[in-house]
Amino acid sequence: MLGIDVVDMDELRWFIRVAESRTVTEAAETLHLSQPALSRGLGRLERELGAPLFDRVGRVLRLNANGQALLDAARRAVSAVDGARRTIGELADPDRGTVTVAFLNTMGPLVVPTLLSDYRSRRPSVQFRLRQGGTERIEQYLLDGLVDLLLISPPRSPDIVWRPLLTEPLVLVVPVTHRLAGRSSVRLAEVRDEPFVIFSKGFGMRPTTERLCREAGFSPRISCEGEDGATLRGLIGAGCGVGLIGPGPAPVPGVVELAISEPACFRTIGLGWCDRFLPAAADAFRTFALAEAKPPGMWRPFTLASDTE
């Protein structure tokens, strides 16, 4: 049985080269080593393993059964170490590597594309791997270590560090045939008796909607629940009720978006992370987002005066 204590990676690389060459001389030339140095390295490897690796026929070395058994393992080991070195290099380089970000579904049409496009114009070699979902789901992604960063409303978990980025005004979405559809703005209390189409539990907009309705003096009467803004708009356009949603990136047939004059209706989106190691690319993106992110569309930069959530 081969007795392996510590094997030098350079010696493994030399062994692979000799196994793939016809002679030690040829391998030494390829490795830019002297033949005696290469022979000594192979000798050390055989002593470390406690078994000969080659059958020597004149100046030609042929792999024996021990050497053949080692060759496949050596190739895997060298490949794994080289891959780890590349990964470690990427982790330390803010201009390379992958940033994993999870975000709320409603961030998909405008916020995430704007933020990532702006950042990649500065660091085009950085790649992004994205996940999305409701508040509870994406918080769990972060806590489980599946993502580096979150784009989210104030998180529920005390283990998530959160800093505000942007403020989004919310609008009242009604069917085009609704009695208020011709207005430019409304008070939220004007729809207190209307059925509401609302985000499902586990989504940050659910408690936001309920809180704003309470501020307007009523509890929403829920007709339908959904998990993304497009579905909610479709339900509203079909006459299932009215709803509080962020402004859409483009007009949607069948619905009208109305500004809300009272109460002040908006939500704050920020960046979340856990207090643990961040790859350099993720750390650089976090710094950029907190300091230089530009709000899209009707969004505006967060200010202390706008923070009511």
TrEMBL record:
GO cellular component, one term: protein-DNA complex
Top-rank lineage group of the source organism: Bacteria
One Pfam family here: LysR_substrate
Name of this chain's protein: DNA-binding transcriptional LysR family regulator
High-level lineage: Bacteria, Bacillati, Actinomycetota, Actinomycetes, Pseudonocardiales
Domain HTH lysR-type per the UniProt entry, residue ranges: 7-64
Family note: Belongs to the LysR transcriptional regulatory family.
Keyword terms of this UniProt record: DNA-binding, Transcription, Transcription regulation
Gene Ontology MF terms in the entry: DNA binding; DNA-binding transcription factor activity
